[in-house]
Model the fold of this input.
Amino acid sequence: MIIHSAYFGNEPFRKLAQVLERSARANCPGATLDIVKLAQPAPIANTAEHVAWNTHKLHSWCDCVQAATEPVVLMDTDMLVLGDLEDAFDPPIGFDVRPHPFDVAYTVRPGPHLINAGVMFVNPTEAGKRFIREWSAFNDELVARGSECVSDMVNAYGGINQAALTLTVQGAEGVELHELDCAVWNSTRQTWVASMKGLAGEDGFERPKVIHINTKLRRSCFTGRRDVRGDYAYLGPLVDEWLKYTRG
Done:
């Protein structure tokens, strides 16, 4: 299994990449890590910088999958890995056991933006590779339509990559797609509470394998603060988990 992530070289993402690498190495002992610092990309005309970066990142993901001969986990760099991701490729008991139980798996969460594109699991099938090519090409098409289209897509789906992924999923044919729970495989703001309960061993909650270090959780991790206010006061243990992997 390959874990691939691509980022650009500013200091916050260098630190996030370091934690991703250390946590993946510790918790995915059989994985080959491919965490790549990309050269700063040329801007895309009439496109916000973060949209251009995510578009170039997706190109890197696509290149990795096309060359792969083993399962691939594609990850944003702002991730903390707490469990073995190889488990996603193991068919559960009673599942139709084939060489690959799915071509592509993505994570879903509660809320208006169902799919979060921050973690993707891809088997090296032709159908899986084709799906990733179509996703990347559709992302490029949306960006090429101009800033108004991009703004509409970001508002509707929470990001340009997520817009392209959701629409590619909706139109997909001839590919075995599988949904995974964000609370376990890519825990975002909507599922942090469930992940916290899983870390604490509460009944009915699975221990998370990936925590998405974004928004207020990222800011708290970077400052080392546990006193996050209001509805986010519970984030302290997640900050502690992240800080463990900043210490070498």
The chain is about 45% helix and 15% strand.
